[in-house]
Amino acid sequence: MQKILVANRGEIALRVMRTCKEMGIKTVAIYSEADRNAPFVSYADEAVCIGPAPSSESYLKMDRIIEICKKLKVDAIHPGYGFLSENAVFAQKVKEAGITFIGPSPEAMDMMGDKLSAKAAAKKYNIPLVPGSDGAITSLEEGKKIAEKTGFPLLIKASAGGGGKGMRIVNEISEFEEGMQRAVSEALSAFGDGAVFIERYVAGPRHIEIQVLADMHGNIVYLFERECSVQRRHQKVIEEAPSSVLTPEIRAAMGKCAVDVAKACNYVGAGTVEFLLDENKNFYFLEMNTRLQVEHPVTELITGIDLVREQINIARGERLSFTQQDLKINGHALEIRVYAEDPTNNFLPDIGKLKTYRRPQGLGVRVDDGFEEGMDIPIYYDPMIAKLITHGKDREEAISRMLRAIKDYKITGVETTLSFCSFVLNHPAFTSGNFDTHFVKKYFTPEVLKKSSEEEERMAALFAAKLFSEKQKTANALQQESTSLCSSKWRENRLA
Predict the structure, then answer these.
(1) Angle 176-191/140-150 helices, nearest 10 degrees?
(2) 253: enclosing H helix or E strand
(3) Banded pLDDT at 450 (limits 50, 70, 90)
(4) CB contact burial 274-302 (16+ within 10 A = b; e otherwise)
């Protein structure tokens, strides 16, 4: 494998290219017109403009990407995450073109990309599942019967769903019909597939995911867990590894289940098996993400394993170079996603120019980003500016290091989620480890940041006033001293 095309943009494109460079592999970047001046473009050995700014006209153009690969004699494609990373059709096209796809097979993607087929595969290995329907709901009457049997509250979920789309909470039978209609409509709109199913609503769950690696020779390992419970709009904002609540016994049990899920779909590559953990520490299989995760750096920091390097080695047909027994948890890692969003305005995306952009540095601090000072935040893509990751000997040190790094991160020109992340990390529920996926709903309101901002402004004004007063006193004292000195000199001259 001499040359890899990275079918992505921004920080993940840079992240993949850095490992390729370490491995002596040439890289090719594809970029849209909006990303022409982005750092990942200049970092690659070769770069090709693939089209206009909208992703449908650039980063999602499957045939054009494959055409570029053939023209530049590319050996493999790394899809990163998002865009085409979990698209089984693209993976199949790449395979048929004689190019290596750095990821699982199209068949594994298909199986795990559909929540119902994923649950069916997990069920064969007796992996705990949230009680509910075994398949898609085919009629309203059937749905009501299953709902009564499952119990309330419950969730109606899109089979092809993700990111909270096509999902409705139903608290009683009178709400069921409207909830189902809304879920089906949203699923059709978002995914082109109106299939929905029912699950019992797990109150106060924690979102725990297990990283797995599987080679082509039947070797599968799990690289422990990531806690991803702090979310807004069902999207993760803060992740950490390991979780503060898992016992070694639960960790081992979840790890075994994750490996079994990988076996169930003949998985190859890096993947993540997601679970819900209830208040009694019972866990249930949720889904499998058949790609590298945004939050993969926290796993890298606690294990010392470069997951992108492993992905490439696996795609080259190599065996895993380590066993489950070789893996150990080293310290604690945190990641915050720095979004160009306004947390005081319902986390609405904010666009503009990065007037000031200075990254934090120091021991145990890592920044994965794709921007430079002076660049614009494009409106066409996800508004994530960077991932800020810290590592410490324990959770307390990782948190304190993150709080310092947030203060050192200087961004002006756009609103960001840095202040929100600081609020979370300082909150007693988070520091104690006693939180769940409802953290934002329970504890956060825009007013807490506005009050904090107002207090900071008040303190800054007081400090400025004090500084001005002290400068005035000093200036007055110097003036008096100067006047006194001049008067003394005048008297000396007269006497002379």
Answers:
(1) 110
(2) helix 248-264
(3) confident
(4) bbbbeeeeebbbbbbbbbbbbbbbbbbbb
Q: Which of 151, 138, 165 is nearest to 233 (CA)?
A: 165
**What distance lies between CA 219 and its chain's CA centroid?**
27
Separation between Cα atoms, residue 110 and residue 428, nearest integer Å: 42
| Token pair of 410 as six digits | 């200087």
Distances (CA, A) of 193 to 13, 111, 179, 395: 30, 15, 17, 42
Between CA 276 and CA 181 the distance in angstroms is 26
Which domains occur in the chain, in start order?
Answer: 3-102 (3.40.50.20), 131-200 (3.30.1490.20), 206-449 (3.30.470.20)
In Å, how far are 78, 140, 145, 388, 456 from 406, measured between CA atoms? 31, 50, 51, 8, 15
pLDDT band at 103 (very low <50, low <70, confident <90, very high): very high
Please report which confidence band the pLDDT of residue 441 belongs to, taking 50, 70 and 90 as the band edges: very high
Q: Please state, as a whole number, how many other Cβ atoms lie within 10 Å of the Cβ of residue 332.
A: 23
% of residues, the chain, pLDDT over 90: 83
What pLDDT digit, counting tens, does each position of 368-395 carry?
A: 999 999 999 999 999 999 999 999 999 9
Is 291 within 8 Å of 271 (Cβ atoms)? yes
- Is the pLDDT confidence value at 191 over 90? no
Q: Where are the beta strands (DSSP E) in 176-315?
A: 196-200, 206-214, 220-232, 235-241, 269-277, 283-289
Instruction: State pTM to two decimals.
Output: 0.87
Confirm whether 404 is a catalytic residue: no
Q: Convert the pLDDT of each residue in 37-64 to its tens digit.
A: 999 999 999 999 999 999 999 999 999 9
Residue 449 and residue 419 in contact, taking contact as beta carbons nearer than 8 Å:
yes
Residue 464 neighbours by CB under 8 Å, 6+ apart: none
What is the sign of the dihedral through the CA atoms of 130, 154, 193 and 50? Answer: negative
Active-site hit among 291, 337, 395, 401? 291
In single-letter form, the type of residue at position 74 comes to: V
Could you read off the pLDDT of 2-19 as tens digits, one per residue? 999 999 999 999 999 999
